[in-house]
């Protein structure tokens, strides 16, 4: 597997792989995420674990708390996890790359970029903000405000916002705080001031795969009322498991999610079903190549 190189009798040298494991973004995932596999996998007969508070992770770490509740109470592990998430994306095709998702065409990102203008994108559960940073690097002319939301301990880890990003603490099991209004008086005010439109896009990356369907519905139903019909879009950046021939990178992530949260990666049919239950219709699914995360775009039904 080329984990170490052999340079002579009893003599070894590091390889690119082992060197990579010394970098926090790669190393920190192992400490936390590999442990459930060494514990007891709770698979009874043909049933996968389904209880997010009683799966392999909880057995390995002797807890009855869902993964993110457990993590939120342990700053040292939270830091490891957030570092891991920064590394997880590296080297992969991203939806903001040229030729993946037609960002300008779909989001009309061509409004002036000052604080009087509407929010372009709210990154809900956005971690340390690596996606917004990547978006700014890959689209330096991007217009509209960018808002990062996560739990207080994660936002605290960032410290100071980089230029063009607004940091907010937000629990995604509560109503979305960047919201559009739906009454005529407010619409008129918005036309005059350019404010309070709600976001053009609410974005969830690697968030919904952390949760079972019931929890996902709570998260989605807290975003939907904030979305302005015909204007706001929901963007979900997740694996879409093909019905046959799924790539190893997706099936191994499915295993990891089972061990970590008693959850799973979803097929397109499962995504459409979940979003439909939350009052959303899928307006497109963009997949660059097998094995990379797709971008699912949805709008409110009404
Ligand atoms: C798997 S990470 C994904 C982070 C980021 N979107 C990314 O792709 O790197 C899930 C994120 O959800 C956040 N999270 C978990 N529970 C949350 C809650 N109740 N409200 C807001 N964010 C939460 C975590 O802190 C974490 O940053």
TrEMBL record:
The lineage of its organism: Eukaryota, Fungi, Dikarya, Ascomycota, Pezizomycotina. Pfam families: Methyltransf_2. PANTHER family: HYPOTHETICAL O-METHYLTRANSFERASE (EUROFUNG)-RELATED, PUTATIVE (AFU_ORTHOLOGUE AFUA_4G14580)-RELATED. One of its GO terms (molecular function) is O-methyltransferase activity. The keyword S-adenosyl-L-methionine applies. It comes from the Eukaryota. Keywords: Methyltransferase, S-adenosyl-L-methionine, Transferase. Residues 120-280 form the O-methyltransferase C-terminal domain. This is O-methyltransferase C-terminal domain-containing protein. It comes from Letharia lupina. Signal peptide: none annotated. InterPro entries: COMT-like (IPR016461), COMT_C (IPR001077), SAM-dependent_MTases_sf (IPR029063). GO terms for biological process: methylation.
């Amino acid at each position: 597997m080329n984990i170490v190189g052999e340079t002579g009798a009893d003599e070894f040298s590091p390889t690119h792989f082992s060197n990579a494991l010394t970098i926090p973004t790669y190393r920190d995932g192992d400490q936390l995420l590999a442990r459930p596999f060494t514990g007891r996998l709770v698979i009874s007969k043909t049933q996968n674990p389904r209880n997010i508070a009683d799966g392999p992770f909880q057995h390995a770490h002797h807890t009855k708390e869902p993964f993110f509740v457990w993590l939120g109470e342990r700053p040292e592990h939270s830091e490891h996890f957030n570092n891991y998430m920064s590394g997880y994306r590296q080297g992969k095709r991203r939806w903001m790359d040229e030729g993946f998702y037609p960002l300008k065409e779909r989001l009309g990102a061509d409004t002036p970029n000052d604080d009087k203008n509407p929010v372009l994108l709210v990154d809900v559960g956005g971690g340390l903000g690596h996606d917004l940073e990547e978006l700014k690097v890959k689209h330096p002319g991007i217009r509209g405000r960018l808002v990062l939301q996560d739990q207080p301990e994660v936002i605290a880890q960032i410290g100071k916002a980089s230029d063009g990003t607004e940091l907010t603490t937000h629990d995604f099991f509560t109503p979305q705080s960047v919201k559009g209004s739906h009454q005529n008086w407010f619409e008129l005010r918005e036309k005059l001031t350019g404010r309070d439109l709600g976001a053009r896009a609410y974005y969830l990356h690697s968030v919904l795969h952390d949760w079972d369907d019931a929890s996902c519905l709570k998260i989605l139903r807290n975003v939907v009322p904030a979305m302005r019909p015909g204007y706001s879009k929901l963007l979900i950046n997740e694996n879409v498991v093909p019905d046959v021939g799924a790539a190893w990178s997706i099936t191994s992530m499915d295993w990891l999610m089972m061990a970590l949260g008693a959850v799973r990666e979803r097929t397109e049919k499962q995504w459409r079903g979940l979003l439909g239950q939350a009052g959303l219709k899928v307006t497109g699914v963009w997949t660059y190549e097998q094995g990379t995360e797709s971008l699912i775009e949805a709008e409110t039904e009404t």
